[in-house]
Amino acid sequence: MEITICIGSSCHLKGSQDVIRILERLVSYHHLENKVTLKGSFCMGECTSDGVCVDVDGKHFKLFPSEVESFFNREVLEKV
Ligand code: FES
Q1: What is the pLDDT along the chain (80 residues), one digit of tens a residue?
Q2: 77 C-alpha vs ligand 1 centroid, how far in Å?
C-alpha cells in the first residue's frame, strides 16, 4: 500500500508535517514498514480548506492531523 501526503504550501499550512509524523509513528507502531510506503508529493492540485491531501493507492482523502488516527484504522489497518 502506498500513501502519498501532499507537502505543497497550502497543505503544509494545514499540518502536512504533522500528518506525516503521525502516520510514520502508526506504521512503525503496527510494524507495517514492509507493507506501507509513505511518500511526499508537491501540490496535488486539490488545495481546499478541508485538510491535507492524502492519496491511498489512488483514492483521495482530506485530513487534518486530528483525523489521522481514525483514518489509519479505517483505511490502512483494515486493508493491509
Ligand atoms: S498544496 Fe496540497 S493539494 Fe495543493
Answers
A1: 999 999 999 999 999 999 999 999 999 999 999 999 999 999 999 998 899 999 999 999 999 999 999 999 999 999 99
A2: 25
Residue 48 CA, closest ligand 1 atom number: 3
| Pocket-testing residue among 53, 60, 61, ligand 1, by greatest number of atoms within 8 A of Cβ | 53
Rounded to whole angstroms, the Cα distance separating 22 from 68 reads 7
* pLDDT, tens digit, 9 for 90 and up, residues 24-34: 999 999 999 99
CATH number for 2-77 (one of 3.40.30.10, 3.30.420.40, 3.40.50.200, 3.30.70.660): it is: 3.40.30.10
